[in-house]
């Protein structure tokens, strides 16, 4: 809706002779909240936006610009609510099933800080995109393993498995029906993974149109300027608009999906045609299809490698040939492969596993090699521009990429193991001599066998940090009462406060968890590949040569790992289903997405959509238009993840607007999480740049907060931004002001602290006061005119 003040501003009319009102733009954090809670008023009205993301005011403040005299003592308050971008729709919880894609996309943004124009930076992005492509192929290979191998090839081809299931009876060889031939069964089953690839394309295209297609303000950047390569990346006008790269990657990954299914069909059929007595014509067609599929794979890799993100300008152009012809040609090859597999081949029977058992081993080897190469790039970049608080010496990105590969293997292996156990009834596939099925590929069994070891590493790391928390808590018990002089000591209260502070510090220990788990995943994954290769070379060696104790331990580890892989997948599906039905659980899912989907889809187009590509332009447009129309002072006030959105929006506005904007952050992970894990975008140099460009900035934090923390700017500017750690709880015991025990707030309710109002008023006082005619001037105000104070 449009206020009368906005109409008056457009016509040049003034409402009175006084200065315009001030504005506080509130941005909530993870998990979301309602406009009523943010504005502490049950009566709110939507000012601009929609139900997905919009700006609200109290009803009595809707026409505040018409009554500036009523807002001399306090600013007008607006609430930007963006929670429906991540947790509003219950069906969106199903994005949990694509968690590996989101984690791989995060690895792209975790590169160490360096000049964006360096060749090593481009190599880093290229390797992450290739890892992301391998995850798409792995997902489709897992779908093909279930649909083509386990169902159509093994179960439907077995009298004891397919014959006892009515829904597979028409494929049973004993009925000699049209679908009983293995090739035709495979062609029919290939519709399932093909539909999965089409669904991924549809979701990626639909979510881009719904959430990420909002263009930001257009501001040209001179790429020939030597300083442009070292500007803060979030200042660049095209940072939050990746239309062209997402469209190219979506086309390449969709083509990879179809080519993977076509390869599974063609390899199995061509292997039969190469046997003695096969048709020479069909054998030639098979070789031709394999050559075409290889060419298609090379083209997909070329498209993924050819071009990265363009951030210095809005990249509106689309490569129509690539985005349309590449997936179309791949779908055509898949149709030819289905026709080729469906050709009549009397006497062809399915035995053992589907040819192509080594596919998962090749994928694991490729992923491991790419992760090692990515680690080399990350180390080189970190040495070129070392940062003291960068976790794992710059190896955070490769570690997270390795975890993404591990998650992908667990999902694919878990589905395959559970489907095999369901299809073979009481037998154990691949282990019982009387089992009707051979079960999944050998590598998945070896990967299942190493999962208990990975979990043991996780447990040991967790125990180590639990002991550390206990020791820190013991040390804090002696110092907590010093913060409340004159209070009577209470051992229970003291231990509770000390425990909260000690647990909040675990956030800074996250690299000590991610690093060992990622290293264990890499080493044990390599051991699984070697073990699977040795099993193919010397079948049955474990059973014949190993002592009984070792053999029993190996079988126990494999069985336990198989159940754990299946359990992990079932828990993920159950969590997604619960989130679909329960609003509270859906809000928890939203918290995960708030952190994981802040970044654009630069590496994987099938990752969950980036909400910041809608939220940052929203905030930027609001700050620009309001300050231009009304000329008032503006404080953008962000809590938790909202502080990251607020900082990103301030980076995007022009110099004139930044001169009228103050930044207030509280419970902010800007340095503690983003500055450490994403140093190229929120590192010390970037945060110092933000401090220099914005008129004034204050940051509030608590020792009990597990997410937020100080900004820690160097060169003596830290105290200007960071307030001292806020007292939490506000009162140790019962006082006249707090007759009941004060709660330990931790990450919540910063506005309940009296310091909040004082700091907001201090920021407004440091902004230059505007007069009715001031906003008509087009020139930017002097940035240093009012000076900087310690607040």
UniProtKB/TrEMBL annotation:
Keywords: Membrane, Transmembrane, Transmembrane helix. This is Integral membrane protein. Residues 1-23, 758-791 are annotated as: Disordered. It comes from Streptomyces milbemycinicus. The keyword Transmembrane applies. The keyword Endoplasmic reticulum does not apply. Residues 1-17, 775-791 have a biased composition (Low complexity). InterPro entries: AB_hydrolase_fold (IPR029058). Coiled coil: none annotated. The chain crosses the membrane at residues 123-143, 186-203, 251-272, 284-305, 325-343, 363-382, 394-416, 446-467, 513-536, 556-576.
């Amino acid at each position: 809706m449009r206020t009368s003040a906005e109409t008056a501003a457009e016509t040049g009319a003034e409402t009175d002779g006084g200065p315009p009102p001030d504005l506080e733009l509130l941005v909530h954090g993870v998990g979301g909240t309602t406009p009523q809670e943010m504005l502490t008023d049950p009566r709110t009205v939507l000012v601009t936006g929609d139900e997905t993301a919009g700006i609200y005011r109290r009803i009595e403040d809707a026409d505040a610009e018409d009554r500036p005299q009523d807002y001399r003592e306090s600013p007008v308050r607006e609430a930007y609510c963006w929670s429906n971008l991540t947790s509003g729709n219950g069906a969106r919880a199903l994005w949990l099933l694509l968690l590996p894609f989101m984690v791989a996309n995060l690895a792209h943004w975790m590169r160490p800080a360096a000049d964006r124009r360096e060749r090593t930076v481009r190599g880093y992005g290229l390797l992450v995109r290739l890892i992301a492509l391998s995850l798409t192929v792995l997902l489709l290979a897992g779908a093909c393993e279930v649909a083509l191998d386990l169902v159509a090839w093994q179960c439907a081809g077995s009298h004891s498995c397919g014959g006892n299931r009515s829904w597979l009876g028409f494929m049973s060889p004993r009925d000699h029906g049209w679908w009983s031939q293995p090739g035709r069964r495979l062609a029919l089953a290939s519709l399932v993974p093909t539909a999965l690839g089409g669904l991924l394309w549809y979701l990626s295209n639909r979510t881009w149109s719904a959430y990420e297609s909002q263009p930001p303000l257009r501001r040209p950047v001179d790429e020939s300027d030597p300083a442009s390569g070292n500007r803060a990346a979030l200042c660049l006008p095209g940072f939050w608009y990746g239309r062209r790269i997402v469209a190219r990657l979506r086309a390449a990954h969709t083509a990879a999906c179809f080519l993977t299914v076509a390869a599974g069909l063609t390899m199995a059929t061509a292997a039969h045609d190469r046997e003695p007595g096969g048709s020479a014509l069909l054998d030639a067609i098979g070789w031709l299809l394999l050559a075409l599929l290889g060419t298609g794979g090379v083209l997909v890799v070329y498209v993924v490698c050819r071009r990265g993100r363009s951030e210095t300008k809005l990249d509106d152009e689309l490569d129509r040939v690539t985005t349309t012809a590449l997936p179309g040609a791949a779908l055509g090859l898949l149709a030819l492969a289905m026709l080729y597999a469906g050709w009549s081949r009397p006497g062809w029977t399915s035995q053992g596993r589907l040819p192509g058992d080594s596919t998962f081993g090749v994928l694991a080897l490729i992923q491991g090699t790419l992760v090692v190469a990515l680690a080399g790039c990350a180390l080189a970049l970190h040495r070129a521009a070392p940062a003291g608080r960068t976790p794992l010496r710059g190896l955070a990105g490769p570690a997270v990429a390795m975890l993404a590969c591990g998650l992908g293997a667990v999902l694919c292996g878990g589905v395959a193991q559970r489907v095999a156990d369901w299809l073979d009834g009481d037998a154990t596939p691949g282990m019982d001599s009387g089992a009707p099925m051979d079960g999944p590929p050998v590598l998945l069994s070896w990967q299942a066998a190493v999962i208990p070891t990975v979990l043991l590493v996780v447990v040991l790391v967790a125990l180590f940090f639990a002991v550390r928390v206990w020791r820190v808590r013991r040390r804090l018990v002696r110092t907590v009462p010093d913060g409340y002089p004159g209070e009577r000591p209470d051992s229970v209260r003291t231990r509770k406060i000390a425990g909260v502070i000690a647990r909040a510090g675990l956030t800074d220990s996250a690299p000590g968890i991610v690093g060992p788990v990622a290293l264990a995943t890499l080493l044990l994954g390599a051991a699984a590949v070697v073990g699977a290769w040795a099993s193919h070379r010397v079948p049955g060696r474990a059973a014949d040569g190993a002592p009984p104790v070792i053999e029993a331990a190996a079988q126990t580890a494999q069985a336990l790992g198989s159940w754990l892989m299946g359990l992990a997948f079932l828990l993920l599906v159950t969590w997604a289903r619960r989130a679909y039905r329960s609003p509270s659980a859906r809000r928890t899912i939203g918290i995960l997405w708030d952190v994981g989907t802040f970044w654009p889809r630069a590496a994987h187009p099938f990752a969950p959509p980036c909400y910041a590509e809608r939220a940052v332009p929203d905030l930027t447009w609001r700050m620009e238009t309001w300050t231009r129309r009304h000329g008032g002072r503006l404080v953008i006030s962000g809590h938790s993840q909202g502080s990251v959105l607020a900082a990103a929006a301030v980076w995007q506005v022009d110099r004139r607007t930044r001169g009228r904007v103050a930044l207030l952050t509280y419970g902010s992970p800007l340095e503690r999480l983003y500055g450490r894990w994403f140093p190229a975008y929120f590192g010390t140099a970037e945060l110092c740049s933000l401090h220099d460009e914005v008129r004034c900035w204050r940051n509030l934090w608590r020792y009990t907060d597990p997410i937020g923390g100080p900004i820690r700017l160097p060169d003596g500017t830290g105290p200007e931004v960071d307030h001292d750690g806020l007292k939490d709880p506000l009162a140790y015991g019962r006082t006249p002001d707090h007759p009941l025990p004060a709660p330990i707030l931790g990450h919540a309710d910063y506005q309940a602290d009296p310091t909040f109002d004082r700091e907001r008023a201090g920021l407004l006082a440091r902004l230059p006061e505007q007069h009715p005619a001031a906003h008509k001037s087009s020139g930017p105000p002097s940035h240093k005119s009012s000076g900087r104070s310690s607040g």
